[in-house]
From TrEMBL:
Keywords from the named record: Signal
Superkingdom per UniProt: Bacteria
Name of the molecule in the record: Heavy-metal-associated domain-containing protein
Keyword Signal: yes
Residues in the signal sequence: 1-27
Organism of provenance: Cryobacterium melibiosiphilum
Amino acid sequence: MKVPVKLGLFGLGLAALYIASFATAGAVVPSHSAAAWAQSTEEHVMDSNDTQPAVSVQGLSMEQDGFLLGEISSPGMAGQEGTLAFTISDAKGTPVTDFEDSHEKKLHLIVVRTDGTEFRHVHPTLDAVGVWSLPWKWNAAGSYRVYADIVPAATGQNITLTRTVQAAGEFAPATPAPISAADTVDGYHVDLTGTLSASEQGLLTVSVSRDGESVTTLEPYLGAYGHLVALREGDLAYLHVHPEGEEPRRGAVSGPDVTFMTEAPTPGRYLLYLDFQVDGQVHTAQFVLTATGPATSAHPGEPAENSGH
């Protein structure tokens, strides 16, 4: 039984006990007052049950729904060539080998240093015994969060598991990135409009241009014309951000806009990473937004909150 329901039944029980006690003792309390008090309690319970559930937060644990992300092996030093490898096991400790496709892949591996830099979105391969692996080199020393975004076939439910990995070497932490809803990467300029809200779902739209001209040759990448990852600054909680619209046909192109449905679990700063593909090359744009609270819910198409535009 949900907590609000339990509290509601408890409150109604108290109301009934309150009325009964006065009737038994013959206290001088007008019956309409007691009835009104009980009705007020019931209305409060109904209001509490109407409250929308909180946004699901993932990417904070190495275990979820009985699935465990095992220890991650990787090169110990920044700049060292090697292999990054891990397994995902079930509740019995058996490595899992059966996963459903999600955005055209069995597993999305997201890697980012804990200061928000060194972002990578890659796709390791799975062998017959359940080991995921790919060639790897840490470009900089530091503490990294590694996320495995998967859909185990046993449940059909999307989950995100995470662990922290250390890369030794001389560490130079980055200063916190300023709030920004625009980025330039590999000659492409990317603007983001809309507001990230912690109170309701909303739309974020990215628009890609080059040399002042809209880019209309965005290619399908992972089943969409863009892939957006959002991480909450502080604990790096992982948000699933889904593109709007139908899955594009193979060989189709689009642009300059790609729209995503979003909702943040809490107010605060979020780090956003957009992957988009042109001419077979994937580019990654980065943004920093502030998620607003209930009093500042957004309308799609408005400039991002605190974007400076």
